Amino acid sequence: MQRTKERQGVIPPETRGTASAPSRANPWLIGAVVVLAIALIAAVTWAFAERSANDTVAAVPSDAMVVQAVHDSVDAWSNGDADAIHLVYAPDAVYVNMIMGATLQGPDEIAAAATELTGDSPGWLQMTSLVSVHEGTAAYALQYFGAKNQGISLVQVNTQGQIAFEEVRGLVAGPSSTNP
After folding, report:
1. pTM of the model
2. Are residues 85 and 173 in the same domain?
């Protein structure tokens, strides 16, 4: 008769062959599983927090700081202002000018080049575009020694608002490309 009830689905399969009710799970076992799950979650959370702390995100200056540094740099170069160059460029700044074929290290070398280029021609360098900024890096168009000589400058600014790296590229067009 029991087999008939099993076939009809009245007696659950897990109680076959036993006269007693199904056994309950051990409360100690459930407690241990819960504690292990909490410990695993805590370990994973700690590991992600530790990883995040070690993955330092480079600090980025504000867009306003970058734009101000670019404008200060153009003004300093255009006027051959050595004091302003020392303020706007970081102590370990690198300035690469593909037009001049020069790489300058630090504000002293950069200021000397700006002073020499300006000579008796203040205003020789002009910004001819808006400054485009993305995460501490800027780009702008420029012209130098007349409208025929145009280029672009790429600038990276540190969190103190000083230029850490600058690269200038351009097209030299004829005899007006040198200091008159």
Report:
1. 0.63
2. yes
